[in-house]
Design goal:
Number of strands of chain A: 12
Strand content of chain A: 15-25%
Order of helices and strands of chain A: HHHHEHEHEHEEHEHEHEHEHEHEE
Helix content of chain A: 40-55%
Low-confidence stretches of chain A: none
Shape of chain A: elongated
Structural class of chain A: alpha/beta
Number of helices of chain A: 13
CATH class of the largest domain in chain A: Alpha Beta
CATH topology of the largest domain in chain A: Rossmann fold
Oligomer: homodimer
Number of domains of chain A: 3
Chain lengths: ~350, ~350
DNA sequence: CTGTTAGCGCATTCAG
DNA sequence: CTGAATGCGCTAACAG
């Protein structure tokens, strides 16, 4: 049923409207002076011909794409089901859209796709980049060093050679505050379940715990997990089993781990929070599904995305941002049942 | 530190290599005959100059973009945390990448973004489209009617005017099978918790239940939920409370709902599965986190994405696909604890 | 206010 | 096998 309707170009519109195509271009790009009469005729022609400017041609002439790429780098073959990422995407999408940019997201989850995306970036695919590194592999970040387009990262990097600004949560503050919250409730025998070592967030959250514990901190109080998953929480609880009678609180690096700890503690016959309190981090959907419901540290991921987008927009506007600039977003404690 | 290195073009490479830029173009596009000598020099020049072809220019000249857009349409401001979508994305990304296409995903979650994406599509943004409609609003699909690019949908549509092929799971079969599984186990007093009415999957799953029940089916056995969430499952259990003593099985439209049912049943003092069996659908990560672990219908979402991509690739290759073509993917029962 | 012109960077004829 | 010429569809600078 497809009438192979020849591609309608700006010239067709011009002809139909009885003006030169330069005028149509001016009309399309808003600004300049086009007579009311011409405008009307052009508008009519565009409508009748169902004309839409060709994107590639416009990008080529303008040297800009009006798109921003959100790149998510994850471990090989892992899928992205983190609500925080999804929410950040929504926040960024909204902000960028309002500013006239189309956000497109790219997933780098294999060596191939990473290489392909690196190539894409070098070919001027987008006007700016939002970079989410959920993995240890930071290789993609280097790609941007040779590219003259602004980049904003979603977490502070421990690599000093990457100058890109970052927007992240005040992870240390959050974990410090919730640890103090436990201490103030008389929970004086705390242990910590740390996230994977490669993650800056993980490191920072542990740091917060240390700060709150001060003198009392002891390396034997912490279990180092390999990932952020529930099973890691279960393993941590098993690891601490011998001393469980002398422990009255678990501070966990995230909600998943906290749920794992609770599950295992329950199996061992301990009551949460009566015997042992447990706190999470993220306030993920899991937090309210857990039993008991998790007391956790909330972060507003939507505004994470929004703030990243705003920073990027400013940079694309030409505003200078100092190297290694970091913007930290606040967190808050959500009191539920587990602590 | 950015040395505003002038954009290096194909001409720079040609000059550096001592050939005309037509030759470089030929070299880049693989095919034709370029002497070994020239090839070597060009390769060297490209390397030294760190040349990467400009994307917009190439698209313009070639009339193709080498990208495929995966468009996700969701309810206003909802975020996408469905593991099935995430997995399908990964599967499609892999397949498309192997075929030389870059997959980019676009999110349509507001009226604005939907309009913007419609515009994008009409401007020849990509060579093909993968369309995931997670929402009632199917407006975006119409956009493609005027576009001469292949489209593949992720679920069968109930709208006859949309001719695009679709790849979906055999939802009816899956639900029929798991219902029979319960019946065979002697669970003869079943009720059904249906998903939101706007979803084709939801309708099809209900149909499967009806098929398995045959004569025994009774409208009073089904609760119609408004969404796919846990709370809907809880509400369903509350709704059925008066007759709970005479029910020995819940067949649920998805895992979330099943978890909600289990939670509420537990609160009411019923044991799952001893008193009442409960089944889910999707085999989402939630299924193994539930207590008891969910018996559910598994669907391989990664291959969902892969098959969609393969179909799209075939269409982009020029293969004809009949209107309303539907490819149904098999499901399987995963026996765990809840039934 | 509007028509004309010269590129944007590359693919692709067509000669040679 | 390779150089030169055209055009993809549009923007922007320049005259008028």
């Amino acid at each position: 049923m497809k009438t192979a309707q020849k591609k309608v170009t700006i010239r067709d519109v011009a002809q139909r409207a009885g003006v030169s195509y330069g005028t149509v271009s001016r009309y399309l790009n808003g600004n300049d002076h086009v007579s009311q009469d011409a405008s009307d005729r052009i508008a009519a022609a565009i409508d009748e011909l169902k004309y839409t400017p060709n994107r590639a041609a416009r990008s080529l002439a303008q040297q800009r794409t009006s798109t921003v790429a959100l790149i998510i780098q994850v471990e090989s073959n892992e899928t992205i089901v983190q609500s925080s990422v999804s929410e950040a995407m929504a926040g960024a999408n909204q902000t960028l859209g309002d500013a006239g940019y189309q956000m497109v997201t790219l997933i780098a989850n294999t060596e191939d796709s990473t290489r392909r995306i690196a190539q894409l970036v070098r070919s001027d695919f987008a006007d700016g980049y939002l970079l989410f590194s959920l993995s240890n592999d930071d290789s993609l970040a280097n790609t941007f060093l040779g590219v003259d387009r602004p980049v904003v990262r979603s977490e502070i990097s421990d690599r000093g050679d990457l100058p890109y600004p970052a927007v992240d949560f005040a992870n240390a503050d959050g974990q410090r505050n919730v640890t103090r919250y436990l201490l103030n409730k008389g929970r004086d025998a705390l242990v910590y379940v740390c996230g994977p070592g490669y993650s800056p967030s993980s490191v920072n959250r542990l740091e917060g715990f240390k700060q709150a514990m001060g003198e009392r901190f002891d390396e034997r109080q912490v279990y180092y997990a390999d990932d952020w998953e529930i099973t890691s929480g279960e393993m941590a609880a098993v690891e601490f089993q011998p001393m469980l009678d002398h422990i009255n609180g678990f501070v966990c690096a995230n909600d998943n781990i906290a749920v794992g700890v609770i599950n295992q503690l329950t199996r061992f016959g301990y009551r949460v929070p009566e015997d042992i309190a447990v706190t999470g981090f993220d306030d993920s959907p899991l937090a309210i599904m857990a039993n008991p419901k998790l007391t956790t540290v909330r972060q507003d991921s939507i505004s994470h995305g929004r703030v990243m987008a705003e920073l990027l927009l400013a940079m694309m506007r030409g505003e200078q941002v100092e190297d290694h600039y970091v913007r930290l977003l606040p967190t808050s404690i959500v009191e539920r049942e587990s602590a």
